[in-house]
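User: I'm curious whether this sequence folds into something compact or stays loose and floppy. Could you predict its structure so I can see for myself?
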Amino acid sequence: MAARRNLWPLGIAGGLAFVVAVNVAMVYVASSSPPILESDDAYGDALGHDAVMASRAASQALGFRGLLSPVEGGLEISLQDQALVPVTGWHGRLRLQRADTRDHDAELVLVEAGPGRYRADWTGAPGLYRLEAELTDGQRTWLDAQRLVLR
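Assistant: Here's the prediction. I'll summarize afterward.
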């Protein structure tokens, strides 16, 4: 009668080899895509936090309603006051940031395209963006931030 071989040691060695291979793959993926820093000067941003919060509170106190939407060849914000009257005569900027890379980040100029409609030309790469809008009439400022999938 032939002796039976015990295969448990091979199974354990195979399992350990699988775990090592997965860990090596994870280290490779993590090191090939460096982290994206949210800020180049986190300390300076933290010092200005109170001013940012005051600006946001003043913006909310205006009671404006803004709707950001993609349009052909760019992005558009429709801005209305509390009485749903279009807000006219303002100008500003629109900042786009992607979480995965800074290669597609952009800062765009918003110009009035019609009563209460502010447009920025943009033909960037599709993806999930954080959009920060800032519109002003020289005395008051309206701020808005949201995430939007752009195609």
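Summary: The longest strand covers residues 127-136. The chain has a mean pLDDT of 91.
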